[in-house]
């Protein structure tokens, strides 16, 4: 194996094409769903404090999950779809 790259097998790739889209550190879909749910509780039910607490806790958990694995939501969705084969 040579250390030199072979011509034609390497292309420049922008970093934005490989990183997930995050809103405030949380995955985009989770952040939107969390904000919508918190707004429904806070504005729709007029429960301001529980809506704010729901948003803070939900966003904090989403950011924590995204720091561990930026693809944690697709992995979790796949985990829920697959049945357990080696369940003891």
Write the layout of secondary structure elements.
Elements: E1 22-23, E2 26-27, H1 28-44, H2 48-68, H3 72-81
Structural class: mainly alpha
Instruction: Calculate the terminal CA-CA distance, rounded to whole Å.
Output: 46 Å
Q: Given the structure, what is the number of helices?
A: 3
Overall average residue pLDDT: 90
Strand arrangement within the widest β-sheet reads 1-2
- Low-confidence spans: none
Tertiary shape = flat
Radius of gyration, taken over Cα atoms and rounded to an integer in Å: 20 Å
- Give the % helix: 40-55%
**Total beta strands:** 2
* Strand portion: under 5%
Write down the secondary-structure element order. Answer: EEHHH
Biggest sheet descriptor: 2 strands, antiparallel
């Amino acid at each position: 194996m040579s250390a030199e790259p072979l011509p034609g097998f390497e292309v420049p790739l922008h970093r934005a094409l490989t990183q997930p889209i995050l809103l405030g550190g949380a995955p985009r879909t989770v952040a939107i769903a969390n904000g919508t749910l918190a707004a429904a509780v806070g504005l729709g039910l007029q429960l301001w404090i529980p809506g704010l607490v729901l948003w803070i806790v939900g966003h904090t958990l989403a950011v924590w999950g995204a720091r561990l694995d930026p693809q944690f939501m697709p992995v979790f969705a796949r985990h829920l779809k697959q049945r357990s084969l080696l369940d003891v």
